[in-house]
């Protein structure tokens, strides 16, 4: 073994990966060193899909089931996306599930009982989320009650409010076509392709621009080939997905045609892009990570910690409102269980499975989407197995454990090398 | 040395529960000068710094900045006045990288987007001036840095800004020989550029090498604030360990919390308690 | 709040009736119908009352019972969450000299003086028969029937299932019908029901011709998936509880039938008995039900549920169980008119 | 203001509080300084009781209601006591509720279906708890899956196991008199007095012995008068409680007599004493705090961190088993909902309201008892108010918030003075 | 100086992900001697210590304790061999008090019950020997201690035990004048009592004052291990900053990871990589 001098020069001296090979080697040693990014969650997802595909090949792998997956997981994923913000601060929001229920109930009341147009109802629902989040945030940040207790109280109170809003137990139907479309209709195939193309072009533009700027400034940057590879990868993934979703999946084409990208997909994608931008590219996002990593250090750096803490609850409850709207659309109605039962645990679970830490400072919005996908695949696959209720619960638990241990084992080296 | 001190604090009391840590402390800091704050372990140096920077609320006391009374309720107030502090317990965010830590709370932006290239360049330049040669990447999380590297990042962070008062709490404690020299030189340069600098150190050689004035804390009381040229090495050590030395320091062992120092003009005003 | 009672110990002699309802989520009836009708009946009889809901929580159920006994009720009417807690509550009440009634659900091995109910098995039976009727109307050939059972933790769901199984099982055995996928819906949760049914449909490759849904909420969940696949109206769906939503679905042709339980009558019967007991009187019911566990013949009032199809939706409205405004809003006004609802 | 020299002499130099007055002053300045101990939870409890007592004077303040309070809160309190151990490490056990359900179902099966004597059933239930805890602990500590995910999987799987054990939808009655007695019978008045006396004498012995040892070693100690005051205080509290519980509380003495201390009270008391001893006076307990406070520091100090992590899950699940037994006894039966609905959230809430931190390193078993009391009082009081379901949820949430903000505000100074 | 070294490590490699921090490092520690380990910030001193104490697994290398090959897989193994370490990042439990921290992992017990009075007394005695005068109470949480007080607690913790090798990573960095003197004296006393001591420090005066040997790390390579009497102040600084000084240190700038040091007999054996 001959060691070449790896480190010399000024403080910014780095091993630049000037070639693709070097870049790959660098990535691989980063993975080996524990900096694994989305890999474990993706691995877990692959294992899960393989298991279900082997056990139920025809139904699990059908285009129709692929489309189902998105609508089934949408509400939990949206709520989880909001929860990521709260978890990034090391806080918790137990009330997010029922908050989504309250917002859905407001939506249903405004559109069905009061008869306003759909957009008024959506605005009202989101406004409700904003108010809820502000209230929770103020109680946590200003009075200083632990978020677990505040949101446990919210969990109880919102449950009651849902009951009151749906008149103690009746359902409120949603008959508005626009609202129903959100979770039940698809984009036209052409529009699907157009949006996918737009996404790829946009991504390419951002990546190339960044590459150029950094090169111009003389900063270290990935080789252009790697950038191209990334763009190509995205194009392939999006292309395949859109292609599969644009296949005909109607049971009976004579009756009706059923194809295209479900509308919730672009909804989730746009929110994912927006929130990722906020977290990664704005100083507000930076401050969230700082407060979550070391609240005292953030305070000393002059960050208004209270404002950040309040704001994440506002974001979380607003996203819960969006989740509630999607859930109401999917169920065609709102009932006292909307946002109840396992919604909250699944949403927090989605974020955590994706890699977000409960202790704050570590997590991405993408985690919620990946973890939400794991939860959705489990529910979807289990639904095809035909177990009795008891067995189904047990197997669901075990499958979740399987996915999580793939994740844990592939993160293993991180702990071993001390990089956490 | 200019006529009005940049910062003057008077009559500061501070207790943590039953323990009184600072009693009637006064301190004057002049622009263009390095004021060394010395004292034994647990004397209250870091606590005094944290009171000045708005981290701890004080029980009593007043702050004058540039002769004007000011209220410093939290670190943002201090930053707004142009006070930058390197804390002894460095207070870096372990989950952020070096550049992110250095610009925390004052990120460079273009529009609403963070301007990462600019920040990375500025950070590299500042660190280059501090002789740190072993940092692999500026995008490394600070949790993976060595003790001295962390210290350097914290120092670099504080001097990045156009501040008027820089307070450094034992900045060279973890630094190597070359790095220490660089930091001391930097401290001198800051003062020469007209900033006020407060330097806390246990190393008397460093203190005598760069400071213009020395302020000594003893068990939470300010026992002397004198020009460096007016005092000897041995005298300072005596002040630190015994609270007095010759004419300087505490009058009696259990005296009223007086500021028996020679070089402070506003001595009598700081006796009042609120 | 429905507590008309003052809080004075002197009320010990005046009759006061406590009612514990089971939950508010498995069915809309408890809070929106039973509470209302019981209140009406008690007010009419001029007795004090306290109606509480245990929210599907056994601990809360017992706590409420303790509190009611503490606050001096003379008669206690319970809808048990399960026979175990039910028995514990009834026994405790009895030991304190409080009269007891089993409302809607019989507490096995319990000690209640009366039992007032609809027959849950016959509810299931009506659902099974309704589905058969709708399939026959469509002259479906060897239809695949999927089950959306109620909560696996709810004993009533088991009773409903016994009912519809008694009708449909012979058809399956005779190869007239084919048994499709069957799942229980945890906590009667409509959102989960949507996913469950969607997966049933995927699993069966779209080949589901009828859905036996245990109540209107689950039925609506199935209908929402059918709509998405443009199969609504072609696949009959059952229900229960005659909710406005269920009735609307029936009017629109998306749902085949629902089961209406005239809660007002049940409430009236129960409150009559309770008022009598509270005053220390005895009443004859002329009917008994055998408690299979305790081996006791419990004096009972049993009411019969009623199947509702498009033709007789108006009966439910006429009964005042739901209002015309609730059902005939917006686009449903025309459908109501067509169905003869005025 | 004349300042006397507070600090001088060697490292152990302390202000000794030699007089009662000095001690009281010392305590008060400790409270002002944020070292508040149980005070906030007790304050919250007092506020709650006052509110309910004012609104429902005759029923809330009756002896019968006081006795109810204990049996109503027992199961949640017991589960919360176990959860404190898990929370002390900064972990969470979402499965504790359904674990108690599984253990209860095992108990019911063994005693009712299989017909074994009660003690076999109890042993089987606790053994089940031990096995569950070991499994969870191994997955968390050895494979490294986050405890949230492991116990979420447990939450699902155990729910299924309960369903399977009680055969989907039915329930298993418990007819064994010993088991039924646990949550439904009372001690004889004499036995109640005897146990109270024993507790006071035991406490006095421990306190006086400790006082003597420390005096003999020349260490700082509380003045003897303060020690006597503490012992007297305990005697008064216990005496009053036993007196009230020994009052006749039958609604109709002709039917039956009902008096004495409920049996669950000594059960909880004994477990409280045992676990407090373990946490405060053994090195195992010390290590739990260390691992919770700084896992890396504990590892460097040579503590077997994995073993500690596994053990807390074992304790938690075993206490869940005990909670399950009490719940089964109280319900006279076990059904698929045992341990479900809000049991888990209430148990975690109880620990947190009592003052245990979700981030580890801070908490006591007493917290679970105090927090459990808050939860029980809220449920009990709300049960007397006669609200409809929706309103009741809302008011319960608000009352919980009230109790928590009394707590938060009285802890306020802690943050202000920097002592956390 | 005894014949067999107490601890000998050879050929240690250690990488964190893509960054190699230690390359083929060898170190010999003799009982009765103070070995000073010096090196620039980020040279890898703390990492080497953490490898020896079992905190970090090594990628390659062997450990000989008292001439016997040993495996140190975790801190418990190290403690069992009698190795005590004061880490640079002190690793105290903030939620425990001073006494609890000092006895962590090795509590005194009578039966199964913790023997608090004994521990409190022992702690008080040990701290008294370290000149720390401002600690209000031994039952104070360490989170409320000043930087120097924390440092002192960590040192006191390490010397409480009958160990055979004590490693101190920059123990005096936060200490005052008097406390530093005490700790250096303590270090000397430990060595004189026959223990092996490894002292990491950036302060050359301290190093020359107490050490018997000096080992210098440069960018993760051991460039020299010599007797203190055989080397000058300036030479050590040169080794630290440039990696060589006259005949000592690296042969060429990009040489094979050789241990070009003068005073290590087993040099040739440490070339083998696994
Ligand atoms: N948050 C706190 N709570 C209670 N006591 C505290 C707190 N912070 C500091 N103290 C006490 O205040 C005294 C002064 O601490 P401070 O950190 O100001 O000392 P220092 O002069 O900076 O010492 P060093 O040189 O060791 O850093 C110490 O005795 C310390 O124990
Ligand atoms: N966990 C880690 N992950 C990645 N890199 C690390 C990690 N720990 C240390 N390093 C790197 O290893 C190098 C050596 O660090 P180490 O702490 O051993 O230095 P040191 O010699 O103790 O320096 P100092 O004098 O500043 O304490 C540094 O460049 C540091 O960035
Ligand atoms: Mg300090
Ligand atoms: Mg180091």
TrEMBL record, chains A, D:
Superkingdom as given in the UniProt entry: Bacteria
Keyword tags: Cell inner membrane, Cell membrane, Membrane, Sugar transport, Transmembrane, Transmembrane helix, Transport
Compartments it resides in: Cell membrane
InterPro entries: ABC_transp_permease
UniProt KW Manganese keyword: no
PANTHER family the UniProt entry points to: ABC TRANSPORTER PERMEASE PROTEIN YPHD-RELATED-RELATED, XYLOSE TRANSPORT SYSTEM PERMEASE PROTEIN XYLH
Protein name: Xylose transport system permease protein XylH
Organism of provenance: Micromonospora coriariae
UniProtKB/TrEMBL annotation, chains B, E:
Superkingdom of the source species: Bacteria
GO MF annotation: an example: ATP binding
Keywords from the UniProt entry: ATP-binding, Nucleotide-binding
ABC transporter domain sequence ranges: 7-244
InterPro entries, sorted: AAA+_ATPase, ABC_carbohydrate_import_ATPase, ABC_transporter-like_ATP-bd, P-loop_NTPase
Listed Gly residues bias regions: 251-261
Region (Disordered): 251-274
Alphabetized SMART domains for the sequence: AAA
Name recorded for this polypeptide: Monosaccharide ABC transporter ATP-binding protein, CUT2 family
Record organism: Micromonospora coriariae
